[in-house]
Write a structure and sequence with these properties.
Beta-Lactamase, binds adenosine-5'-diphosphate, 784 residues, alpha+beta, Rossmann fold, 44% helix, single chain, five-stranded antiparallel sheet, 6 domains
Length: 784
C-alpha cells in the first residue's frame, strides 16, 4: 500500500488552501494534510502530525513563513519546505532559499506545485542519501586510516596510491615515503617472482587473492604477513586499482610452531613417561590415560578409559581417595594440587601401591570440571622402606634382647642419641636424664672420668676404635661397671658418626674379683700344703727309716737269733715300711714337681748297669711269682748323660708294675737299644693287659684301672705319673702297647744327651730344656 504523503500547510486563506490541495491531488499525489495558521498549531503539526513536507505562505496575520522555516529546520534539517506566496520579490526568494527553503512558488504559478513537491522530496532524499554515503565513506576512510592493519592500494602497474597508518606502522614507511613507489618495495628481492606469479596474476584473474608470504620492513627486517587482496573497478566494470590488506602474523606463526613443538613434547612425554598420566571427569570416570597404565596395572588405555575409579580399588582405598579429592576441592582452584599414596588393584586384582599427584581443574566460574594427575608405581619404594623399617626394628630388638645400650654421636651436628637400654642400664626411665655426653661424663666415676673421657675424645678425633671399662653412677646409688665400645665412621651420606655399644659388665666384674680372691686363697692353700709336705718329708721319713732300719737289723740276726714267727712279722713290718716309704716318696716327688720343680742331677753313666741293678732289686718278687725275667741289650749302647736316680726310678716303676700285673709263671723281657742320639727301652710282660680306653688315663695321678685290681695289686696310682714327668724332664716320652689278657709293653725313649729333640713317632709333647752335660737342670712343670 502506498503511503500517503503527509503535508503540513501554513495558510490563512481557505480558498488558496483548497486550490493547492486540488492541484496536488490532480497530479495523482496521495496525501493527508494538517493546517496551521499560528505558531502553536504549527508546532503541534510538526511534532504530532510529523509531516513529510511543509508548504507555507510567506505572510500570515498571526505567523510568518520565515519563522515556520526556522522551526522546521530545527525539527529536521532535511525537511522539504516550499514557500507558496502571492507576492514575492527576488530578494525575499534568495533570502528564503539561503535560509534553507527547498523551493518557492508564486500562487499565480500554482500548477507547478505538484512538481515542486516531487522535486523537493526527491532532492531532499538524494541529499540525505548523499550525506549518509559521505558520512559512511568518511568513517570508512577513518577506519581504514586508523586501522592497525595495513591497507594499501596500487595502480595496475603496482604504483602505491594509498597508504594508511597501519601500513606505516607495519612497514615503517611514512605515506610520503611510500606513495608513488612500486609495491615491490615491500617484498624481498628473492620473492619478486612470487609477487608476480602468485600474488598479482591470480588477483587480476580471480579478482581476489589471499596468501601468507614473507615481507620486508623499512629497516630490512623480514616478517610474515597475511595478505587479502582485491581489485577495484570503475563504473564500466574495468579494473582500475588493486587493494591489499595485510597484517603481521610472525608471532602467530611462531606461537603456532611453538605450540606444535610443545604439544609434540608433551605428547612424547606423556607417551614415554613411566608414570601413568590420566584425567577423569567429576563422576570419577577416566577420560584419558597414557600407555603406562598397562605397565603399572595391566590395563590397556582403551580398557581404562571409561572405567570408574571405584572399580579399581577396595573400599578403604576408595574412601581414602574420595577424602583426598574432597580436600582438593576445598582448596582454592589455584592450589598446588593433592598428593597421596593408596593401593590400586591391577587387572589380576592384586593391590599395587601407587603415589598419586592430582589437580582438580575448575572452569572460569570456579566449578570443578575434571581431575588430572599422574600415578607412579611405588612398589619398590615401599619394599625398600619396609626393608629399612624391618632392619631398624631388627637392630632395635636385637639390642633390646642383648640389653646392650646403643649410642650414636653425630660429629657434624654434635648431636647424641642413646637408645632406651642405655637409660635403663643405669636404672633411669626413658628421658629421665638428658642423654648427652655431658650427662655421661657427670655420671662417670671421677677416677674413670679423668682417664676415660680424654681417651674417648682422642679416639673419636683420630677415628680409631675404642674400648673402655668404667664405673657409672646408677639411679640406685650403686656403681655399675660399663664396657663402652665404639668406632668412628664416614657414612655414605657424607656424615661423620661415632657409634658404639654400652654393656653392663658389673656381674662379670664381680665374678672376676671373686676369681681373683679364689686364686689368692688357692695359692695360699697350696703354700700351706707344700709347707705340710716339707714337714712330712722329715716327720714321716724319720720314724719310717727307723722302722725299716731296725727291722733290717733284727732280720739280719746281728742282735741274736729270732724264731720263724718273729722273722715273718719282722719281714711284714719291713716290707710295709718300704711300701709306705715308696708311697711317701712318690707323693713328695709329685708335690715337689707341682710346686717349684725338681732339680735334675746330670751325670754320665751306663744305662745297662742301672737296668741290671733294677733287675736284681726286683728279683725276689719275680722269684716269688715264678716269673721269668730277661734283659736284652742292643749294640753300642754306650753311656748316657741324665739323672741316674730318675732313670733308675723310671725303669724300676715300669718293671715293678710288670711284675705286679703279671700272674705267676709269666715272662718279662726288658730290651734296651740305642737309636741315634736316643736310648729306647721296652718292658714287655704277659700280664693282664690294659684296655684301650685306659691306655692314656693310667699316666694321670691316682688313676688305677679298676678298684678290684687295686685291692688285688696294691699301689696308689702315682708311679706312671712320675715316670712320664721324669721322662719329660729329660725330653723323653713314653707310650704303651697292650692286649687285654695277653700283656702290655711300655716303651720309653730319651736322648742320650740332655738336648732338645723332636720325637716324631711319640705322641707326648717334648718340653724344651737346654743345658750342657753335667749341668744342673731345673724342670718347670706345665702350668694348669
Ligand atoms: P700303681 O702304683 O697303682 O701301680 P701306677 O701309676 O704305677 O700306679 O699304675 C697305674 C695303673 O696302671 C695301675 O694301677 C694298673 O692298673 C695299670 N698298670 C700299670 N702297669 C701295668 C702293667 N704292666 N700291666 C697292667 N696294668 C698296668
Amino acid at each position: 500500500m502506498i503511503q500517503a504523503l503527509k503535508i503540513l500547510f501554513v495558510e490563512d486563506l481557505p480558498e488558496d488552501l483548497e486550490l493547492a490541495k486540488r492541484k496536488i491531488k490532480s497530479c495523482g499525489i496521495i496525501f493527508e494534510s494538517f493546517l496551521a495558521e499560528n505558531e502553536d498549531d504549527y508546532l503541534k503539526g510538526l511534532y504530532e502530525f510529523k509531516p513529510d513536507i511543509i508548504i507555507s505562505d510567506y505572510m500570515l496575520p498571526e505567523f510568518d513563513g520565515m519563522r515556520a522555516l526556522e522551526l522546521a529546520l530545527t525539527y529536521n534539517s532535511n525537511m522539504p519546505f516550499i514557500i507558496l506566496t502571492g507576492s514575492m520579490n527576488e530578494e525575499i526568494a534568495v533570502e528564503a532559499m539561503k535560509a534553507g527553503a527547498t523551493d518557492y512558488i508564486l500562487k499565480e504559478h500554482i500548477s507547478r506545485l505538484p512538481f515542486a513537491i516531487r522535486e523537493a522530496i526527491d532532492s531532499k532524499k538524494a541529499m540525505v542519501e548523499k550525506k549518509i554515503a559521505m558520512d559512511a565513506l568518511k568513517s570508512m576512510s577513518d577506519i581504514i586510516q586508523q586501522s592497525p592493519f595495513s591497507v594499501i592500494s596500487t595502480s595496475l602497474e603496482g604504483i602505491i596510491t594509498s597508504w594508511n597508518k597501519g601500513a606505516e606502522r607495519i612497514f615503517g614507511y611514512t605515506s610520503e615515503e611510500a606513495l608513488g613507489k612500486n609495491i615491490s618495495l615491500l617484498y624481498h628481492e628473492d620473492d619478486l617472482d612470487i609477487l608476480n606469479n602468485d600474488i598479482i596474476e591470480p588477483l587480476l584473474s580471480k579478482e581476489y587473492n589471499q596468501i601468507q608470504t614473507r615481507l620486508v620492513r623499512k629497516g630490512g627486517e623480514v616478517f610474515i604477513g597475511s595478505l587479502s587482496l582485491w581489485v577495484v573497478k570503475d563504473r564500466a566494470g574495468k579494473t582500475v586499482e588493486m587493494v591489499g590488506y595485510t597484517y603481521d602474523i610472525t608471532k602467530e606463526v611462531e606461537a603456532e610452531e611453538a605450540l606444535e613443538t610443545s604439544e609434540k613434547m608433551y605428547r612424547l612425554l606423556a607417551e614415554n613417561t613411566q608414570d601413568c598420566i590420566w584425567s577423569m571427569d567429576m563422576d570419577l570416570v577416566f577420560t584419558y590415560s597414557n600407555h603406562s597404565v598397562y605397565d603399572i596395572l595391566g590395563f590397556l588405555p582403551e580398557e581404562w578409559i571409561g572405567s570408574n575409579l571405584k572399580d579399581h580399588c577396595d573400599e578403604e582405598n576408595y574412601m581414602k581417595m574420595l577424602e583426598s579429592i574432597r580436600l582438593g576441592l576445598q582448596k582454592a582452584p589455584n592450589s598446588e594440587g593433592i598428593c597421596f599414596q593408596v593401593e590400586v588393584l591391577n587387572k589380576e586384582g592384586h593391590a599395587v601401591p601407587v603415589e598419586i599427584i592430582g589437580k582438580i581443574i575448575f572452569d572460569k566460574n570456579g566449578a570443578p570440571v575434571s581431575i588430572q594427575g599422574n600415578s607412579r608405581d611405588i612398589t619398590k619404594r615401599v619394599e625398600t622402606e619396609n626393608a629399612l623399617k624391618e632392619s631398624e626394628e631388627r637392630l632395635e630388638l636385637a639390642l633390646r634382647v642383648s640389653e646392650h645400650g646403643f649410642w650414636v654421636w653425630d660429629l657434624d651436628e654434635d648431636d647424641f642419641y642413646f637408645n632406651p637400654q642405655s637409660y635403663m642400664m643405669l636404672g633411669y626411665e626413658n628421658n629421665e636424664v638428658p642423654m648427652s655426653i655431658d650427662t655421661w661424663s657427670k655420671l662417670m666415676h671421677p677416677d674413670d672420668r679423668k682417664n676415660v673421657m680424654p681417651e674417648i675424645i682422642d679416639s673419636v678425633n683420630e677415628r680409631r676404635p675404642f674400648n673402655f671399662e668404667m664405673r657409672m653412677a646408677a639411679n640406685s646409688g650403686d656403681w655399675i661397671w660399663v664396657l663402652a665400645k665404639g668406632n668412628t665412621f664416614n657414612l655414605k651420606s657424607g656424615k661423620h658418626w661415632a657409634i658404639g655399644t654400652l654393656v653392663d659388665i658389673t656381674e662379670s666384674k664381680k665374678a672376676e674379683e671373686q676369681m681373683l680372691l679364689a686364686k689368692i686363697a688357692a695359692e695360699e692353700a697350696n703354700r700351706c700344703k707344700n709347707e705340710l709336705l716339707a714337714n712330712m718329708n722329715h716327720e714321716l721319713r724319720t720314724p719310717l727309716n727307723s722302722i725299716i732300719g731296725f727291722s733290717d737289723v733284727l732280720l739280719d740276726g746281728s742282735l741274736g737269733m729270732i724264731n720263724e714267727e718273729q722273722e715273718k712279722y719282722l719281714r711284714l713290718m719291713n716290707n710295709d715300711g718300704h711300701r709306705l716309704l715308696s708311697l711317701i716318696n712318690h707323693v713328695l716327688d709329685l708335690s715337689q714337681i707341682e710346686s717349684d720343680g725338681i732339680t735334675l742331677h746330670f751325670s754320665n753313666f751306663d744305662p745297662v748297669l742301672v737296668a741290671e741293678n733294677v733287675m736284681e732289686a726286683t728279683e725276689t718278687l719275680a722269684r716269688k711269682k715264678n716269673i721269668k725275667t730277661c734283659i736284652s741289650i742292643g749294640k753300642n749302647i754306650g753311656t748316657i748323660t741324665a739323672d741316674a736316680d730318675k732313670f733308675r726310678e723310671i725303669l724300676y716303676n715300669i718293671i715293678e708294675n710288670a711284675l705286679k700285673f703279671t700272674p705267676e709263671n709269666g715272662n718279662i723281657i726288658v730290651v734296651m737299644n740305642r737309636r741315634n742320639d736316643e736310648i729306647e727301652v721296652s718292658v714287655q710282660d704277659t700280664g693282664i693287659g690294659i684296655a684301650e680306653k685306659d691306655r692314656e688315663r693310667i699316666f694321670d695321678a691316682f688313676v688305677q684301672v679298676d678298684g678290684s685290681n687295686t685291692r688285688q695289686y696294691g699301689g696308689a696310682g702315682l708311679g706312671l705319673v712320675l715316670v712320664r714327668e721324669y721322662l719329660k724332664m729329660h725330653n723323653g716320652c713314653i707310650r704303651v702297647e697292650s692286649k687285654t689278657g695277653k700283656g702290655s709293653k711300655f716303651i720309653f725313649r730319651m736322648p742320650v744327651y740332655p738336648i732338645k729333640k723332636e720325637m716324631s713317632d711319640f705322641e707326648s709333647p717334648v718340653r724344651s730344656s737346654i743345658c750342657s752335660p753335667d749341668s744342673q737342670h731345673r724342670y718347670q712343670p706345665p702350668k694348669p
